[in-house]
Design a protein that fits this description.
The chain has 165 residues and is of the alpha+beta class. It has helices spanning 31-45, 118-129, and strands at residues 5-12, 18-25, 52-57, 80-88, 93-99, 131-133, 136-138, 148-158. The termini are far apart.
Length: 165
Amino acid sequence: MAIAYQITYELEDDSGERATFGINIPTTFSLAQYTEFGRAVASLVDPIVSGRISNCGLTISVDLSGLTSNAFTSTSDVEEVAAFQFSTVDGTKTLVNVPAIDELAVASGTDDLDQADVFVAAFITAMESGVAVTGGTVSPCDVAESDINSTVYARENFRASGKRR
């Protein structure tokens, strides 16, 4: 069994703190297709975070300089995480944590992400249905390359920075 590749994104908040999250993808695509996928998913994550996406990579870095609003706000915090749990066609669960979630993506009075929000919905659709790239569609998957096909939950979580205060 092949082990899936992972596209990794690094986000930065206004205090300079950095955090990463990764998305597993199949091993069957070209470098150009992985690059196209990396940029497409970054453009879907950008509107739902308050931090700045500073890097994306799969052994090589992907240029994200074309993101028009890729900047952190004064309230961005990489410890505020959008936790997405997805299910795969094999029924396994896989978790994607996106740091520096924008509070505007959280449904009022809850810790649930607003899945009706156009930007949150676009990210979920891409995770469930894949991202069209030249010559095919890259579908996010679990580590065993089972395609993601549904969302179990999408909510705000918090993670420790690892720093003593």
